[in-house]
């Protein structure tokens, strides 16, 4: 185990120990919700960075907010129906965009249009929801402390599934980003793997929007993968390191939040931004 | 390995958006052995390789691959290892040399093959003379010569019966070209190897057949036969305009 590997292992063990200590004083559902979000976004960030799909990381939270707010027009209380319909809507939009990019649509143009369209829809829908007294602020800034035990377990299952799939098959997704024409040759499976990445992106960004919030989703989708690439080389190590960074930032963010009475998502975001700056400077630029 | 193998192109025409890239090419390529494909830029050399491997479909004509004298019933790509002319790995892609060859091998090699993947990967990297300390390098960190050898390792790891190399010596210095040529020459003893090039001299001695293309087939035959053809040089001279075409003996 070399220096960076040892460092990552120490951070992972520290994060788990901190999570245990927090669970002695605060509801387990908070810790599970934050840990799940950190792991899921960390893993997803690694793949998006490896594939050069950060444009989708920037656009996906806008789609998530638009989908969630449109669904809130029809289903009040942000319950299961709201969640299911918003995930469905978000997945359809993100997967369709991914398919168009796969077919040759310029990625910048696709992301630009997607952000414009979804921002417009979100503002229109959020205005209607707020006028009729619905909950809006939670979607924007996120609040993991509102998570109930059932939702926390659902989030944990989602994060565990995502990690398991990426750990066993993530290499296919990353390899598809190299020698693309040949990788996709003679098989429809390449397209299915590509679309499955967009599917996962849609499910996670919409499904965890209320925990993480629209603003922080950008940070969590973009930074863990980049920070990991500053520290380690290789796809496997990158995935593991990125997931550990997401987990640690989430747990540390929760700990700081309960001590200072600030937003847990905001605290996690601040930690990631500092980590990015620190590792960037360490790398010499 | 080393089954008799033939690629038969019959009247193959390929067009991109109605612009003809290959025009009625009829050609028989038999292996094992090394075939060099020459022609000016835009002559359709890359298109020919992509048509053979199935990435491009002809608008007319057909490509038939025969293994052991019988038409291959499956996807031609299953038999093909390919080294592209250009490969610029994105710096954000974290795959290491080892992971890259391993990923390709896992995709290309049937599970029932029985050999552990790590053995296959290490053997391919060793045979292409990639130093073990470079296995953990990111692809974007490699020099052009090493990257070409990594691409070759990736292409031959699953021991394809057809190896297609698109201008493998581009951007390489003479030492790197010689090293790569040695690897290609060795592999051509057990598979059908097709190399597109502007400089046939690097692999001249090992070449079994030379093909000259300029959208249409200009010439095909043994290297001596093709290069001693006055008609060929006249055609190439006309095609190249003020460029100079030099044969292996400097004529």
Short description:
The complex is a heterodimer of chains A (285) and B (251). Chain A has 13 helices and no strands. By secondary structure, chain A is mainly α.
Chain-wise SSE layout:
The complex is a heterodimer of chains A (285) and B (251).
Chain A: H1 3-25, H2 28-50, H3 54-74, H4 80-102, H5 107-131, H6 137-141, H7 149-175, H8 180-183, H9 189-207, H10 209-212, H11 214-231, H12 235-260, H13 264-282
Helix pairs in contact in A: 1-2, 1-12, 2-7, 2-11, 2-12, 3-4, 3-5, 3-9, 3-11, 4-9, 7-9, 7-12, 11-12, 11-13, 12-13
Chain B: E1 5-16, E2 19-31, E3 33-38, H1 45-53, E4 60-67, E5 70-71, E6 80-83, H2 97-108, H3 117-127, H4 144-156, E7 162-166, H5 174-187, E8 192-197, E9 207-214, E10 216-221, H6 223-227, H7 230-240
Parallel strand pairs in B: 3-8, 3-9, 6-7, 7-8
Antiparallel strand pairs in B: 1-2, 1-4, 4-5, 9-10
Helix pairs in contact in B: 2-3, 2-4, 3-4, 4-5
Write a concise keyword list for the protein shown above.
heterodimer, A: mainly alpha, ABC transporter involved in vitamin B12 uptake, BtuC, 13 helices, globular, B: 251 residues, alpha/beta, 6-stranded mixed sheet, 4-stranded antiparallel sheet, 7 helices
Walk me through the structure.
The complex is a heterodimer of chains A (285) and B (251). With 285 residues, chain A is mostly helical. Chain A has one domain: ABC transporter involved in vitamin B12 uptake, BtuC. Helix content of chain A is 83%, strand content 0%. Chain A is built from 13 helices and no strands. Chain A has helices spanning 3-25, 28-50, 54-74, 80-102, 107-131, 137-141, 149-175, 180-183, 189-207, 209-212, 214-231, 235-260, 264-282. In chain A, α3 packs antiparallel against α4 and α12 packs across α13. The longest helix of chain A is centred in the middle third of the chain and has 27 residues, at 149-175. Chain A is globular, with a radius of gyration of 18 Å. In chain B, the strands form two sheets. Chain B has a six-stranded mixed sheet, with helices on both faces. A four-stranded antiparallel sheet of chain B has the order 2-1-4-5, with helices on one face. In chain B, β7, α5 (174-187) and β8 (192-197) form a beta-alpha-beta unit. Chain B is globular and about 50 Å long. The model of chain B has no long low-confidence stretch (mean pLDDT 87). Classes of the chains: A mainly alpha (285), B alpha/beta (251). The A-B interface holds A 49-52, 171-172, 174-175, 177-179, 181-183, 185-186, 229, 232-238 and B 53-55, 75, 77-78, 82, 84, 87, 89-90, 92-96, 99-100, 102-104, 106-107, 136-139.
